[in-house]
Amino acid sequence: MIECPNCGGNLKFNIALQKMNCSFCNSDFDPYEFDSKDKDGIESKEYETTIFTCPECGGEIESTDNETTGFCPFCGGSTIFYSRLAKEEKPDFIIPFAKTKDDCKKAYMKAAKRAFFLPKEYKDEKYIDGFRGIYMPYWAYDIGQNGHVTIKGEKTHRSGDYIIHEHYDISGDLDCEYNGLSYDASSSFADDISEKLAPFDVKKKKPFTAGFLSGFYSDRADVNKSLYKSDAKTFSNEQTIKRIKDEPSLSGYSIEVSKNKINSKIKSTGRTLFPVWFMSYRKNDRVAYATVNGQTGRVVADFPIDLRKFFAFAAVLAVLLFLLLNSVFTVKPSTSTIINGVFSVIALILYLIGSLAIKSKENKTNDKGYQSKNGNGIPGTENTHEPDLYKTRPLPLITSTLGVIIAVLMFVTRSIHDEYYYFCNLVIAVLVGVTLVSLIKDYNLLITRRLPQFDKKGGDDRA
Ligand SMILES: [Zn+2]
Ligand SMILES: [Zn+2]
Fold first, then answer.
1. Mutual orientation of helices 394-413 and 418-447 as an angle, nearest 10°?
2. Does the structure show a pLDDT above 80 at 83?
């Protein structure tokens, strides 16, 4: 902790003031006043911190205030943390929090209100107060592109009966720079959240000093710093190619540039801390995250659907539709069977799409940081570390298919008895209902996460 020079109280970074503030004697200080220097006046490359390890999931979080979080941000467990003092290497940069906890709660509530079927415990004041300010580590790459490039250009015009293609070699010198291309450096912090929380305005980054951390927590960089180099290069190459194609002097040409023509060099890699308000909600063996970008206020949250709320809404809607349709025109029983059949098909398709999406998320095939920690860093290779945890359930597939079959049979046989139609429509409606319940349950699986299990015993491979 950083002591107040006036009274010895614990100084914390105050977001509204953007200064260190003592709540006992109410004095403010510049965060850089507390840079620790050795006796020769050379700034230390390290800072002191307490690392807390969650006994349940192995997630690690650190704090300079030696106060525990009370609950684990990653798995939502509220067990006693193991703590140890440590000296950590200083990150290069930090984007200090700009949004206060109140701003964050307001932004979250606004998003929660728009999530119509959100279970009400997600809007509970007690739950929302659980937001913690956490600095998330990112690797930030600076990339330079220099040198001579030749690209192919083609102009096409018509002359009489001929179409004439003119080929050009267009050459020029590149001088491009990309600064602060940032990638999630923590394997604990899910890539899907870090991507959606972006962008952070890296121009507002500041040189790191430990004072900014006071009153907050920080997640640790445990992903190798070279992991995203190729992604950063690919990204900057694509951006440059886009810029070349948009170049006004080249309009009229169809341009072809191959990516390997552009020579991208990583000029530097820096560790930057980004501010994120973080909250986790645990139910049984699932956890849902709510995050708010601490710089811009953008909300990224896992919002599940309350089944009861959904079906209450669906029932009201069905009754209203029924009354409306009955008052305007009469639907023939055979037509209603077709409509029901279409519903069955839609339910089937939705279920299949949902199921595939969950499969990829549950098995974390897209989380590069996570995969790299599990020895699966090479893109395109199969995840061999864990067995597939999610499998498509047969029941909703059977019910929706059955609904389609019944509808088709009714349509083909063209029964003259209305009662058959009514009966079959009822059966199809129940089948669609069963599919919908599975669909929503699976949606909630997709939107929440399985409890994380981190294995950080392998030591610190910060490069
Ligand atoms: Zn004080
Ligand atoms: Zn945990």
1. 160
2. yes
Q: Which two structure tokens, joined as six digits, stand for 211? A: 């004072």
Measured between alpha carbons, how far is 236 from 343 in angstroms, rounded to an integer? 45
Q: Cα–Cα distance between 99 and 101 in angstroms, integer?
A: 7
Is residue 25 within 8 Å of 39, Cβ to Cβ? no
Question: Do residues 426 and 32 make contact, with C-beta atoms less than 8 angstroms apart?
Answer: no
pLDDT 10s digits, 13-33: 999 999 999 989 999 999 998
Rounded Cα gap, residues 210 and 44, in angstroms: 11
Buried b / exposed e over 272-297, threshold 16 CB at 10 Å, is: bbbbbbbbbbbeeebbbbbbbbbbbb
Tell me, in angstroms, the distance from the centre of ligand 2 to residue 275's CA. 20
Task: For residue 373, give both structure tokens.
Answer: 């920690």
What pLDDT is attached to residue 383? 43
Joined together, the tokens standing for residue 15 give 């977001």
231 contacts: CB under 8 Å, gap ≥ 6: 183, 368
Share of the chain above pLDDT 70, in %: 89
Angle subtended at Cα 215 by Cα 211 and Cα 219, rounded to the nearest 5 degrees: 85
User: Cα(91) to centroid of ligand 1, in Å?
Assistant: 27
> From the CA of 214, how far away is ligand 1's center (Å)?
14
Q: Nearest bound ligand to CA 74?
A: 2
Q: Which residues neighbour ligand 1 (ion) by CB within 5 Å? A: 4, 6-7, 9, 22, 24-25
Report the predicted TM-score, pTM, of the whole model to 2 decimal places: 0.80
Domain ranges of the chain: 1-27, 132-203+220-278+285-301, 307-447
Quote the distance between the C-alpha of residue 27 and its chain's center: 38
Structure tokens given for 103? 């701003």
Residue whose entry in the numeric block shows the structure tokens 């964050």: 104
Q: What is the pLDDT of residue 460?
A: 46
Tokens of 363: 């098995």
Side chain identity, residue 124:
D
* Spatial distance between the Cα atoms of 63 and 83, rounded to a whole number of angstroms: 10
Q: What is the mean pLDDT of the chain?
A: 84
Residues 6+ apart with CB under 8 A from 24: 4, 7, 9
352's tokens: 């299949």
- Residues with Cβ–ion distance below 5 A, ligand 2: 54, 56-57, 59, 72, 74-75, 77
